[in-house]
Specification:
The structure holds 2 protein chains of 2 kinds. Chain A is of the alpha+beta class. Chain A folds into 2 domains: about 5-80, Roll (Ubiquitin-like (UB roll)); about 85-155, DNA polymerase, domain 1 (Orthogonal Bundle), CATH 1.10.150.120. In chain A, about 30% of the residues lie in helices and about 15% in strands. In chain A, strands 2-1-5-3-4 form a 5-stranded mixed β-sheet, sandwiched between helices. In chain A, α2 crosses α5. In chain B, a hairpin with a 2-residue loop joins β12 and β13 (about 210-220). Chain B is globular, with a radius of gyration of 19 Å. Chain B has helices spanning about 10-20, 35-40, 75-80, 85-90, 90-95, 100-105, 110-115, 120-130, 230-235, 240-255, 265-290, and strands at about 5, 25-30, 50, 60-65, 65-70, 135, 145, 150-155, 155-160, 165-175, 180-185, 195-205, 210-220, 225. In chain B, the strands form 4 sheets. Chain B has a 5-stranded antiparallel β-sheet with strand order 4-5-10-6-7. Chain B has a 4-stranded antiparallel β-sheet with strand order 11-12-13-14. Chain B has a 3-stranded parallel β-sheet with strand order 1-3-2, with helices on one face. Classes of the chains: A alpha+beta, B alpha+beta. The interface between A and B is medium-sized, with 35 and 29 residues. Bound molecules: flavin-adenine dinucleotide and FE2/S2 (inorganic) cluster (2 copies).
C-alpha cells in the first residue's frame, strides 16, 4: 500500500510515494539514486549499507522505509562539504584505508557516528564502533589508523564545524 | 518486498487496539532486525507493521523498589552502556554488548531478543541467569508476568503472541551488596557471529559462603536452560575452585549439545562448558565481593 513517506535526507526534506515495506537501502539506491550506500549481504551481516539515522549508525538493509518517516538520515553523499572532503574521508585516503572500496562508505558512516558522539575514542572504542563492518581487502589496521587520525584532525581543525560535546574546533 | 501499511501508535493502549482491529494481520515491529529478515524469507507476511518505537512509556531504564525496569524499546547499545545495568545487572550489559555488530545493537531491542525466541539469544540467556520477568499486556487490558525461560513456548516461538499482545517491560531484581553476575560466550569471531556456547551466572554471597546461585546455559535446546542441580549444590557451600569444578560437572551432566556445523561438535562444547561455568562463577563471586 504505497503512501507518502517523508524524512530529512542529508539535511534536505524528501518525500517519497512508495511502499513502507520497501527496504530503506533500496529506496536510497533505486528511488533516490544515491548509490554511495552499498549492498553486500542484505542480511545485516556486513555493514556496507550503513547510514546514520537519528545520530546512530544502522544497517539500511534491515530498515523498512516506513520506519524512516520523520527521521533524520545521513548517507555518505551527505558528508563532503562542496569540494571539501569530511575529515574521515580525507583520513581514509591519506592512510590508504581504501582498496576495492566496496566497504568504505559503510566504514566511514560508522566512524562518523562514533566521532560525532565521542571525539576522542580509544582503540577499543574504535573497534567496538566498527564491529558491524566487514572489509575483505585491507585487514582493518589502516582503517583503524584512519579513524584515530580523523579524530585528532577533527579536534584540531579550526575550520571544521567542531565537535558537539566539547566545543573543541568550533569557530 | 511486501505491500504493507506502517503505523506508529503513541501509547500502549493504541498499539493493542490496532493489533485487535487488524485481527491477527498486524505484527509488532521494534528494531526489526529479526522481523525484516523473516519477511525477506517470506516466513512473515503481515499486512500491517505496528512500530512501537515512538511509544514514550516503553523507553528508558529505571530503578524501582529493588527492580531494574527496562522498557520494550531499550536497545542492546543502551543496555550495554547503561551505568545502572552495569552496576546492578551486569550480565545483561555484557550479553547485549555481544549481540551482532554496533549497527544491530543500535536498533535491536532486548525485548525483541526475548520474543524472537532464539535458542541462544544473548540477552535472553543473561536475563534467565538474572531471574528477570516480563510484563505482558493483552488487548482486553489484562496484564500478566512471565519469568525466564518461561517466555519461550518453543523453538523460535514465544509465549507472547506478537500479533495480539505486547511485552511492555522487563523487570530484573537489582543486584545489591554481596551479589554479582557474569556472562560468558564462545564464538568463531568477536562480532557478527552465532554463539557456540553461552553461560550466564548470578550469585548472592554471605562473605565466602554462597547463599544462592542461578546458572543459565545455551544453546542446549529450544530455550536457555537452568543448571538447577548445580545451583542446588552451590547453595550453602563456601566458594572454592573445588566447589566451582563440581558445580560445572553437574551443569555439564544435563547439557545435551547437538553436533552442529556452525556451532561446533558436541564433544568440543562438552569440553568447553565446564571451563565456562567455572569462569562465570569465579567472575560473579569476585564481583559480589566488590572486585
Ligand atoms: C546480522 C545480525 C546479527 C545478529 N546477532 C545476534 C547475536 O549475536 N545475538 C543475538 O542474541 N541475536 C542476534 N541477532 C538477532 C536480533 O538482532 C536480536 O534478536 C534482536 O534483539 C531482536 O530485536 P528487534 O528489536 O530487532 O526485534 P524485531 O525484529 O523488531 O522483533 C522480533 C520479534 O519479536 C516481536 N516483538 C518485538 N518486540 C516486541 C514486544 N515488545 N512485544 C511483543 N512482540 C515483540 C516482533 O513482532 C517479532 O516477531 C542478530 C541479527 C542480525 C540481523
Ligand atoms: S548489506 Fe546491509 S549489512 Fe550487508
Ligand atoms: S576495501 Fe575492499 S572490502 Fe574493504
Amino acid at each position: 500500500m504505497a503512501k507518502v513517506i517523508s524524512f530529512l535526507l542529508n539535511g534536505e526534506r524528501v518525500e517519497l510515494f512508495a511502499d513502507p515495506g520497501m527496504l530503506l537501502v533500496d529506496a536510497l539506491r533505486d528511488e533516490l539514486k544515491l548509490t554511495g550506500t552499498k549492498i553486500g549481504c542484505k542480511t545485516g551481516g556486513c555493514g556496507a549499507c550503513t547510514v546514520i539515522m537519528n545520530g546512530l549508525a544502522v544497517n539500511s538493509c534491515l530498515i523498512p522505509l516506513g520506519k524512516a518517516e520523520g527521521a533524520n538520515i545521513v548517507t555518505i553523499e551527505g558528508l563532503a562539504d562542496l569540494d571539501k572532503l569530511h575529515p574521515v574521508q580525507r583520513a581514509f585516503i591519506d592512510h590508504g584505508a581504501v582498496q576495492c572500496g566496496m566497504c568504505t562508505p559503510g566504514f566511514i558512516m560508522s566512524a562518523k557516528a562514533l566521532l560525532d558522539n565521542n571525539p576522542s575514542p580509544d582503540r577499543e572504542q574504535i573497534r567496538e564502533a566498527l564491529s558491524g563492518n566487514i572489509c575483505r581487502c585491507t585487514g582493518y589496521v589502516k582503517i583503524e589508523e584512519a579513524v584515530a587520525s580523523a579524530a585528532g584532525r577533527m579536534h584540531g581543525d579550526k575550520n571544521h564545524e567542531g565537535c558537539a560535546r566539547c566545543g573543541e574546533g568550533t569557530q | 518486498m511486501l505491500s504493507q501499511d506502517y503505523v506508529f501508535p503513541r501509547t500502549v493502549e493504541s498499539a493493542l487496539a490496532l493489533l485487535k482491529e487488524y485481527g491477527g494481520k498486524a505484527i509488532i515491529i521494534a528494531g526489526g532486525t529479526d522481523l525484516v529478515l523473516l519477511e525477506a524469507r517470506k516466513k512473515e507476511t503481515s499486512a500491517v507493521l505496528v512500530d512501537i518505537s515512538h511509544i514514550p512509556d516503553l523507553c528508558g531504564i529505571r530503578e524501582e523498589e529493588g527492580w531494574i525496569v527496562l522498557g520494550a524499546n531499550v536497545t542492546h547499545s543502551e543496555a550495554a552502556f547503561s551505568p545502572l545495568i552495569r552496576q546492578k545487572a551486569l550480565a545483561l550489559a555484557i550479553a547485549s554488548g555481544k549481540v551482532g555488530g554496533r549497527q544491530i545493537r543500535n536498533i535491536a531491542t532486548v525485548a525483541g531478543n526475548i520474543v524472537a525466541g532464539h535458542p541462544a539469544g544473548d540477552a535472553a540467556v543473561a536475563l534467565t541467569a538474572l531471574g528477570a520477568t516480563c510484563v505482558i499486556r493483552s488487548p482486553d487490558g489484562a496484564r500478566r508476568e512471565l519469568g525466564m525461560p518461561e517466555m519461550y513456548a518453543g523453538l523460535h516461538v514465544s509465549a507472547v503472541d506478537c500479533h495480539a499482545e505486547l511485552l511492555t517491560h522487563i523487570r530484573i531484581p537489582a543486584q545489591g551488596p554481596g551479589e554479582g553476575s557474569s556472562y560468558q560466550r564462545m564464538e568463531q569471531r568477536k562480532a557478527l557471529s552465532l554463539p557456540m556456547l553461552c553461560v550466564g551466572a548470578r550469585v548472592a554471597m554471605n562473605g565466602k559462603k554462597i547463599k544462592s546461585a542461578r546458572i543459565a546455559i545455551a544453546p542446549v535446546g529450544p530455550r536457555p536452560q537452568r543448571a538447577t542441580e548445580a545451583e542446588d549444590f552451590l547453595a550453602g557451600k563456601t566458594a572454592s575452585p573445588n566447589v566451582f569444578a563440581k558445580a560445572a560437572a553437574l551443569a555439564d551432566k544435563h547439557a545435551a549439545f547437538r553436533t552442529s556445523a556452525v556451532r561446533g561438535s558436541s564433544e568440543f562444547r562438552h569440553a568447553v562448558l565446564p571451563v565456562f561455568v567455572v569462569r562465570a562463577l569465579e567472575e560473579a563471586v569476585a564481583r559480589a565481593a566488590g572486585a
